[in-house]
UniProtKB/TrEMBL annotation:
Location(s) in or outside the cell: Cell membrane
Source organism (scientific name): Thalassospira povalilytica
Region of interest: Disordered: 602-693
Keyword Cell membrane: yes
Name this protein carries in UniProt: Potassium/proton antiporter
One Gene Ontology cellular component annotation held by this UniProt entry: plasma membrane
Length: 693
């Protein structure tokens, strides 16, 4: 028995070591690291070179649940409140309505492809309906892709909050399959959903508050604070789940509350959680890989790939578009959000539930879900950076690389120590003064410790210890960072720069382009905010007339500080415009244009159908008045106000001073319905310069 335990410890340690070292290969070739961990488990399993027999589905579900709870707690802990504010509404809609839309779309296709009962097909849709928090957070935070704050925040909050909905749907459908339907199924499901979400939210807030108060009031050894934090998070997960709430939602909300509160030893807690999160990801993916049997994949690989492609190219885009069309996301941002719908360990973990509960199709659903996850990680995870670059949504970084270490001050002080290594091209190295609210306490130079007042000017390579409030650390980063990539790139930030309060009319006079009357009193900052729907980011471009306005610098609240001007628009590589994912405003504009065209066509048809306005014959144009003096019965007049037999002499009679001459009379009787239609079409499609198409 003891030897068997030692063997398990040895094998588990070797798997962790192998997973860690394979990460080096992952970073070199650009493969999703979590996919590498999954392949390590597959390689060590019964069909791999390891030959390890592992078929304990309940144990795998237990390990995966603990790991996912730790990952979600850390995800909430690292999510700033500012991130939640700008993305709460769209991400929560995606996490609820989006998950349900995906469930029904994939459920319908599963019913056709796998030929299973309708409830089982819906169960598979619920299993793969949520994005994977571990995969999304890893690719966005570790992958180094610099996105717009709103887009990044939406993806992060969605991935952290949509798991409870998927878990609820999966467990509810499993119970329906086992117990059969009842008369009040919809009411029971709604009550259970409200209970899970309500208890999860309430217990999460209460648990986060209790955790912060306990750590701040009880004097513990610094090394014990991260451990008790992790233990409290897992205890909250278990207690909430036992009482009928969503444990995953509770730990995410608790982490969100604790991470945005003043908590003692928060720096140490963050470091510890980074370690435990990595270990949890390795343990979860390797365990799920061990549970799978690749030799059984052959029977489901074709339907699995079909379902994965439908999920990637149909279900996820439709769900994202329907959920985000009311939030003024650009088409490219919506397209990217739909592409970053990675499926990962959560889907495999939920696929274990039907196996544990003894549903006959459980193994089929597990193997198919595994194929879907592998396809998603290969297709989406491997191309996420390329797609972001192709869509043109990568924004320049606010500042260059920063070499910084955070240190914790003892007690409950509202200050912390940050240590910077001075970059040779940073602002402080070139003479910029450190603000008064930041107090340098020590400078290390060439191995010697110097007091700030005796060290002289700060030099490149110095290590500067600064005491500062935590909220000002990001401002200090800008002083000690190196230059941002492309900071002086003319193609990226324009030929010239000017203040944001400059009027667009002044720029129009200077560069010789017309300004719309409604824009004459607007500043360039107003134009940028209007055309970007208030979501302004560094590097955003808005064409106006013959120039392009470029956001060159912003503050922490996304206010415009400096605007660049590109005189030749062709310098900037045009952003691809996706022909789908129209927003509500764009759909409304399309509807209005269609109505205008239909009205113009109707008016043109009515005008063309009136004989009094028909074009005159060639004989009349040549000067013959036979048409005018012929039998009135041959030339019926439908307009009672129109003279049925106009006389040229009468038209030019002095007694009628308002009568036009012959030429103008002919012109008056000669309509141009085609031109009228063209004008209507043109008026419906022409926009003032500078306004979004």
């Amino acid at each position: 028995m003891i030897e068997s335990m030692n063997l398990v410890i040895l094998i588990a340690s070797i798997l962790v070591v192998v997973a860690v070292f394979t990460s080096l290969v992952s970073f070199r070739v650009g493969a999703p690291l979590l996919l590498v961990f999954l392949f390590v488990g597959l390689g060590a399993g019964e069909d791999g070179i390891g030959g390890i027999m592992f078929d304990n589905a309940p144990l795998a579900y237990f390990i995966g649940s603990i790991a996912l709870a730790l990952i979600l707690f850390d995800s909430g802990f690292e999510t700033q409140l500012r991130t939640l504010k700008i993305a709460a509404a769209p991400s929560l809609v995606l996490a609820t309505i989006g998950v349900m839309i995906t469930t029904f779309v994939i459920g319908g296709v599963t019913w056709l492809v796998l030929d299973v009962p309708w409830l089982v097909a819906l169960l598979f849709g619920a299993i793969v309906s949520s994005t994977d928090a571990a995969a999304v957070f890893f690719l966005l935070r570790v992958g180094g892709i610099n996105l717009r704050d709103r887009t990044r925040s939406t993806l992060e909050v969605e991935s952290g909050s949509n798991d409870p909905m998927a878990v609820f749907l999966t467990i509810s459908l499993v119970e329906l399959i086992i117990l059969g339907g009842g008369d009040n199924i919809a009411v029971e499901l709604l009550q259970r959903f409200i209970l899970q979400i309500g208890l999860g939210t309430v217990f999460g807030v209460a648990g986060g508050y209790a955790l912060v108060q306990m750590i701040n009031r009880v004097k513990l050894e610094p090394g014990l604070v991260p451990i008790i934090t992790m233990a409290c998070a897992l205890a909250l997960f278990g207690a909430t789940s036992i009482l009928g709430g969503s444990g995953f939602l509770a730990v995410y909300v608790a982490g969100l509350f604790a991470g945005n509160s003043k908590m003692h030893m928060s720096v140490g807690v963050r470091r510890f959680q980074h370690v435990t999160t990595w270990l949890a990801q390795i343990a979860m993916f390797v365990t799920l890989g061990l549970l799978a049997t690749p030799s059984e994949f052959g029977a489901v690989i074709v339907p699995g790939v079909i379902l994965a492609l439908v999920l990637v190219f149909v279900a996820r885009p439709v769900a994202v578009w329907l959920c985000l069309m009311f939030f003024n996301f650009s088409r490219n941002d919506t397209a990217f959000i739909s592409w970053v719908g990675l499926r990962g360990a959560v889907s495999i973990l939920l696929a274990i539930v039907p196996m544990v509960e003894g549903i006959p199709e459980g193994q089929l659903l597990f193997n198919t879900a595994f194929i879907v996850v592998i396809t998603s990680l290969l297709l989406q995870g491997w191309t996420i950076r390329r797609v972001a670059k192709w869509l043109g949504i990568i924004v320049p970084p606010r500042h260059g690389p920063v070499d910084r270490i955070d240190l914790e001050l003892p007690g409950n002080a509202n200050q912390e120590i940050v240590v910077y290594r001075v970059h040779e091209a940073s602002a402080v190295a070139t003479g910029q003064r450190i603000p008064r609210w930041a107090r340098p306490s020590l400078i290390l130079r060439d191995g010697a410790s110097l007091r700030p007042h005796s060290a002289g000017h700060i030099q490149a390579g110095d290590q500067v210890y600064i005491i500062t409030p935590p909220r000002h650390v990001e401002l200090l980063d800008q002083l000690f960072a190196g230059p941002a990539e492309g900071a002086n790139d003319i193609d990226l930030f324009g030929d010239f720069s000017f203040p944001p309060d400059t009027h667009i009319a002044d720029i129009g006079r200077l560069y010789g382009f017309a300004v719309d009357e409604d824009d004459a009193e607007l500043t360039v900052a107003d134009i940028l905010k209007r055309d970007l729907s208030g979501d302004v980011e560094l590097g955003d471009r808005v064409p106006y007339g013959t120039v392009e306005l470029i956001v060159r610098r912003t503050d922490d609240e996304h206010g415009v500080i400096e605007v660049g001007l590109a005189v030749e628009q062709q310098k900037a590589k045009p952003k691809r415009r996706i022909p789908i994912f129209q927003s509500r405003a764009e759909l409304l504009e399309i509807w209005k244009d269609w109505q205008k065209r239909k009205r113009a066509e109707k008016n043109a048809a009515l005008t063309a159908g009136t004989p009094a306005t028909a074009l005159p014959t060639d004989d009349h144009d040549s000067g013959s008045d036979d048409e005018l003096t012929g039998d009135p019965s041959e030339n019926p007049v439908t307009d009672p106000d129109q003279d049925a037999n106009p006389d040229p002499d009468h038209l030019s009679s002095p007694s009628d001073p308002s009568a036009p001459d012959d030429n103008s009379a002919d012109a008056a009787k000669t309509p141009a319905p085609t031109a009228a239609k063209d004008d209507a079409d043109t008026s419906s499609t022409t926009k003032a310069p500078g306004k979004k198409a």
